[in-house]
Design goal:
Layout lengths: L5 E6 L6 H15 L7 E6 L5 H7 L6 E4 L16 H6 L4 E4 L2 H7 L3 H14 L2 E6 L3 H5 L3 H12 L9 E5 L13 H18 L7 E6 L7 H5 L6 E4 L6 H8 L12
Bound molecules: 1,3-dihydroxyacetonephosphate.
């Protein structure tokens, strides 16, 4: 693979019914059709129940879609859980794993994230493993230690040639309206890239490191321009068509991710 594609991902969380999701992606496809965006990969993450409508509407489209969560077993007596095989069957390419809302509201541990990583990879899904520190952990200067632990445990036994992404989402920046600063993001992304390389992962060719936490049309150009940022994971601002299109159309001198 020569050069990497910048990932622009919209995490809709628990928003958009099937019909709302269908209307949104139809308009998104229409709104994006004029320009070629070879160096940008656009992916939306609807709630489970809206995935079939999105899949139907995005047939033969460049826009990808994925799930916000997954279970680690492929089938069985697990009431309420969704197998990676079912997601694959719906045409999902991606799955988000270990989002901070899942960790804090639903008790997901690093070990659970790891099981989900391994089973998603085995099924042929591309996982996006989320990591990030709370404000208190940052204040206590534990940011690198927390992220190192999340990566160590979350990527346990993941093959070095696996293709996945890491989303750095500082918990304090999510939904707060206040993104991390370029300086804060740069040091953490650089730490993650180095960590991956040190452990033997193919790093940039196969693993991108993207940023999430209050990304908006107003700050996206600045955030994408930060060294070591390979894309963005957008929550609230991905729910409105104009704002998501503006984010997809971020301006970056020299197009980040272009082949050298
Ligand atoms: P916001 O963009 O709403 O802060 O959410 C970020 C996020 O959680 C993406 O996964």
């Amino acid at each position: 693979m020569s050069g990497i594609r910048t990932l622009i991902a919209g995490n809709w969380k628990s928003n958009k019914s099937a019909e709302e999701a269908r209307a949104f992606v139809k308009a998104l496809r229409e709104g994006l059709k004029e320009k070629k965006r070879d160096e940008r990969e656009i992916v939306v993450f609807p709630p489970f129940t809206s995935i079939p409508a999105v899949a139907d509407e995005l047939r033969n489209s460049e826009i990808g879609y994925g799930a916000q969560n997954v279970f680690w077993e492929t089938a069985g007596a697990f009431t309420g859980e969704v197998s990676p095989v079912f997601l694959k069957e719906l045409g999902c390419r991606y799955v988000i794993i270990g989002h901070s809302e899942r960790r804090t509201l639903f008790g997901e541990t690093d070990e659970i994230c790891n099981r989900k990583m391994l089973s998603s990879l085995r099924t042929g899904l591309r996982p996006i493993l989320c990591c990030g520190e709370t404000w208190e952990q940052r204040r206590e200067e534990k940011t690198f230690c927390i992220i190192g632990e999340q990566l160590n445990a979350g990527l346990h036994q993941v093959p070095f040639d696996a293709e996945f992404d890491i989303a750095y989402e500082p918990v304090w920046a999510i939904g707060s309206g206040k993104s991390a600063t370029a300086e804060q993001i740069e040091v953490v992304h650089s730490y993650i890239h180095q960590w991956l390389q040190r452990k033997g992962f193919a790093s940039r060719e196969r693993v991108r490191v993207i940023y999430g936490g209050s990304v908006t049309p107003e700050n996206v150009d600045r955030l994408i321009a930060v060294p070591d940022v390979d894309g963005v994971l957008v929550g609230r601002a991905s729910l409105k068509l104009e704002s998501f299109i503006r984010i997809v159309d971020f301006c970056c001198p020299g197009e980040k991710g272009a082949s050298p």
